[in-house]
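Appendix B. Chain record.
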Amino acid sequence: AVSGVLGCFAVLRRQSLFGDALAHAALPGVCLGFVFAGGKSPAWLLVGAAVSGWLGALAVLGVVRGSRLKEDAALGIVLTTFFGVGIVLLTRIQNTGNASQSGLNSFLFGQAAVLLQRDVLIMAGAGATVLALVALFYKEFKLLAFDPAYGSTLGVPMGLLGVLLTGLITVAVVIGLQSVGVILMAAMLIAPASAARQWTDRLAVMIGLAALLGAVSGVAGAALSSLDARVPTGPLIVLLATAIVLFSLAFAPRRGLLWVGLQRRRENRKLAAAAVHGPGFHKAPGEPDYADHLGALGGVHRPTDRDAAPNAPIKERP
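Structure tokens predicted for this chain:
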């Protein structure tokens, strides 16, 4: 639910892949948190992941502003670098023989079965804090997503709001790492928001619907995964979220492919009827004159007085 809410702002700001970079950048922090705590302490792992993800976000911004590289190239550089460091650290930890490192690799693909009650409580507390901050700064985030230039003219600190929103997205990514995994966490930011966008044009409704779709896919995926320990939770959750996106793309009103296809078919029938009946076709009040459109497009020409002049009988002068 939290990732769906923050994903709406990421999608509207065209920063969908930013969450992917944050998720991959969080892996070194997870490993360093394990090293500092000497075990799988949920608080240390979450703090380490948040700090590492935040550093990854700053690295992306630094590369974009300090070089001629575009944001997509900066995301690719930061993503691969941090993920490579995380894999090296994870491999070293697994080779130490420390028994407490068992299950640490669940951060790669996600496995809800390894979550303990204290893990769930910490994640719930962090998620509630994020949602409270989103509700508190809702108007400012809305302005940041749609018209940051206008917000700057009003004296609203758009830069600080962008930093705050990035921090909240980082926390949302960190919360879902152990359930969905580093590799697939970006899908939980993008999929619910993209599906919700197909059903509404209002931001408040989009946020609520994205939260609902994210929660449904997460709970359903975790429940199905618990039936078979060999099935990883993360990929199953992502598959369910993707199915919701495909359903929305096909059947959503006004935006869905089926709806658009029916609308085009209806318009084509009206155009064909106008062409058959010609100028005498009676159209409904307020309905466009499709015969005129066909005349302009298909070369149909209505006779005028000028056209009839050459065929008129010649009158002799007295």
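Further analysis of this model is presented in Appendix C.
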